[in-house]
Amino acid sequence: MTRPDALESLVSLAKRRGFIFQSSEIYGGTGSVWDYGPLGVELKNNVKARWWNAMVRERDDVEGLDAAILMHPKVWEASGHVSGFSDPLVDCKACKARFRADKLSDAACPRKPSKKPGEHIDCQLTEPRQFNLMFKTFMGPVEESASVVYLRPETAQGIFVNFLNVQQATRQKVPFGIAQIGKAFRNEITPGNFIFRTREFEQMEMQFFVEPGTDMEHFERWKEARLNWHLGLGLDRDRLAFHQHTDKELAHYARAAFDINFDFGGTLGFQEIEGVHNRSDFDLRQHQEYSSKKLEYVDQADNKRYLPYVIETSVGADRVTLAILVNALREEAVEGEQEGRTVMGFHPALAPIKAGVFPLSKKDGQPEMAERLAAALRKRFPVFYDEAGAIGRRYRRQDEAGTPFGITIDSGSTANDSVTIRFRDDMGQIRVATSRVAEVLGRYLEADHAQADSRLVE
Ligand code: ATP
């Protein structure tokens, strides 16, 4: 089954509601760079916080790190990026467009009528040549080859070069991991599909250092753990699938690799959102050689020293955010209404705004009571106060922002100190004492996804 293409409606909703804007839009935009607006930054921060909690805070065998973007240029020689981080590029001499030679069948010639590159009669595609994807810049005031540095194309190398620093500072014993979240930059030849493939993006990477020989067992464990993490975000099970790298796809140093793919619908279909890799001791061995510094782990208990193998989990914060947006978007009919509604059905824990607070009327002390409640709730999570317009329209605006709860203050509220909580997904309502609202919402926000779907309170 091919799911419908949600990207087009998503791009316009994302702009209209302030999830995502094109970078430097007033100047015509920067190629494949995007800015996160007020709702988008909350959503992406929630994704990152969830990853950090699952990978670092809830475990005692993974440590956090925040390494710099600019690194010693030798790092990228050792890692193989200077010589090998490239894609095959073909130019078209007729229309001047550039394409990835290995993705020609997915690309479109910019000319009309729309065809694939090479299919117009006068297309003139060159032979493929290797194009390095790293952005170069200069460190210091002199623009010369000796001062070239790179914007990191992945966060992982910051972890490898700090392996012994972290191990010695924390006295962790192998097996243990190091995790970090940070920006990465790739001068992609054919970026696109909104925030799916961009030139500046954020990665959430974890390197788990293990004794050689135990690597495949850890690999299997991490594969399952990472799939479960995506399920916990509320991504539909049937939209997620593992893709095992074939011998042709596998990097020469890798012992095994699986991608976690998500079905974005339309022509994009199933695409990688995360990679889980068994990288052997390749990276530590390379850095040991290029830096001439011993990077071995000393196992004092067993009197052994060795270079650990590394199981890597690498996921794009932006790509997962796109998967969450695609998974959440739904248009539905509403009984008794002509217009229907657009709902972003985010897991409550991911929703940018947790609750809308609405006085039904501007009289009878309702706004004052609503503002008091909103101020109290804001101490715990983001809340949106709205007293403008018909209540139905106010609900619809929050449905579109993905706000899971609507709290309405009506004429009964001031009399008996209670409010209604409306649930975004089924539009059902419950009445609770004002003093219990924070506690009730807190229980929903902490629930796992399956529970969040059902009523926790009567
Ligand atoms: P692809 O095959 O899509 O180019 P990759 O295999 O090069 O991806 P990795 O180097 O394994 O990707 O990066 C790990 C993760 O980082 C990817 O699964 C993806 O979520 C994210 N990522 C990589 N490149 C980009 C990009 N240009 N824009 C957004 N996210 C990206």
List strands and helices in order, with pairings:
Elements lengths: L6 H11 L2 E3 L11 E3 L1 H20 L4 E3 L8 H6 L2 H4 L1 E6 L6 E3 L28 E4 L3 E3 L9 E3 L5 H6 L1 H8 L5 E10 L14 E11 L4 H18 L7 E5 L11 E8 L6 E9 L3 H10 L5 E3 L4 E3 L2 E8 H12 E4 L8 E4 L10 E5 L6 H13 L4 E3 L5 H11 L3 E5 L1 H6 L1 E6 L5 E5 L3 H10 L2 H4 L6
Parallel strand pairs: 3-9, 19-20, 19-21
Antiparallel strand pairs: 1-2, 4-5, 4-6, 7-8, 9-10, 10-16, 11-12, 12-13, 13-16, 14-15, 17-18, 21-22, 22-23
Helix pairs in contact: 2-9
Bound molecules: adenosine-5'-triphosphate.
Features:
globular; alpha+beta; five-stranded mixed β-sheet; binds adenosine-5'-triphosphate; 30% helix; 458 residues; 14 helices
Give your account of this protein's structure.
With 458 residues, the chain is α+β, with helices and mostly antiparallel strands. The protein has 14 helices and 23 strands. The chain has helices at residues 7-17, 38-57, 73-78, 81-84, 156-161, 163-170, 215-232, 282-291, 317-328, 366-378, 391-401, 411-416, 437-446, 449-452, and strands at 20-22, 34-36, 62-64, 86-91, 98-100, 129-132, 136-138, 148-150, 176-185, 200-210, 240-244, 256-263, 270-278, 297-299, 304-306, 309-316, 329-332, 341-344, 355-359, 383-385, 405-409, 418-423, 429-433. A seven-stranded mixed β-sheet has the order 3-9-10-16-13-12-11, with helices on both faces. β22 and β23 (429-433) form a beta hairpin. α2 packs across α9 (317-328). The longest helix has 20 residues, at 38-57. The protein is globular. Adenosine-5'-triphosphate is lined by residues 154, 186, 188, 197-198, 201, 203, 272-275, 314-316, 318-319.
